[in-house]
Amino acid sequence: MIAAATDTSAVTNEWAMAEVIKHPHVLKKIQEELDTVVGSNRMVVESDLTHLNYLRCIVREIFRMHPAGPFLIPHESIEATTINGYYIPKKTRVFINTYALGRNTKIWDNVGEFRPERHLSADGSRVEISHGADFKILPFSAGKRKCPGAPLGVTLVLMALARLFHCFDWSPPVGLKAEDIDTSEVYGMTMPKAKPLIAVAKPRLAARLYQ
């Protein structure tokens, strides 16, 4: 339980940091949202998260492109069934390929492009991240057997990223361009970056807020 909560959150946060730093216009846009919602005289608190819609888009886009658990946790069919013409016997071990769902060209355009704006709704309503009701992105599975820690996991990820983006300007290390940040993956029970992210942080708020 501890590993499931910590490793997946850490992997998700690192992917989000890598993609946002690789795309400076996204960093600028999320910082503009944070400055509007939170301002520059205090830190982000949990009640702010519901108003950070673009940040929610970033996390949803990370779940689409770089799911921490590419095949989720194994499930088992409790009775025989047929789905789309495929017969699934009782007690079949089932893996959900959520990585492939996020790159399904029948659902998503330009699947290799990091574009959080694709998740914004036309009416401006809050972007949902974890419920999986549309079956397009399933970071926590869906239905009765979905991850019970989904609300906590989403809150922890959003809070960590909100504070990192709000408190600091981020850039690649000297000698590396933003577009050169490596985003290759390592496949396993989780899917971390092949090479750990190295980045430079520069404070952007008043010094008293860091004490």
From TrEMBL:
<dbReference type="GO" id="GO:0046872">
    <property type="term" value="F:metal ion binding"/>
</dbReference>
<dbReference type="GO" id="GO:0016705">
    <property type="term" value="F:oxidoreductase activity, acting on paired donors, with incorporation or reduction of molecular oxygen"/>
</dbReference>
<dbReference type="InterPro" id="IPR001128">
    <property type="entry name" value="Cyt_P450"/>
</dbReference>
<dbReference type="InterPro" id="IPR036396">
    <property type="entry name" value="Cyt_P450_sf"/>
</dbReference>
<dbReference type="InterPro" id="IPR017972">
    <property type="entry name" value="Cyt_P450_CS"/>
</dbReference>
<keyword id="KW-0479">Metal-binding</keyword>
<keyword id="KW-0349">Heme</keyword>
<keyword id="KW-0408">Iron</keyword>
<dbReference type="GO" id="GO:0016020">
    <property type="term" value="C:membrane"/>
</dbReference>
<keyword id="KW-0560">Oxidoreductase</keyword>
<dbReference type="Pfam" id="PF00067">
    <property type="entry name" value="p450"/>
</dbReference>
<dbReference type="InterPro" id="IPR002401">
    <property type="entry name" value="Cyt_P450_E_grp-I"/>
</dbReference>
<protein>
    <submittedName>
        <fullName>Cytochrome</fullName>
    </submittedName>
</protein>
<dbReference type="GO" id="GO:0004497">
    <property type="term" value="F:monooxygenase activity"/>
</dbReference>
<comment type="similarity">
    <text>Belongs to the cytochrome P450 family.</text>
</comment>
<feature type="binding site" description="axial binding residue">
    <location>
        <position position="147"/>
    </location>
    <ligand>
        <name>heme</name>
    </ligand>
</feature>
<keyword id="KW-0503">Monooxygenase</keyword>
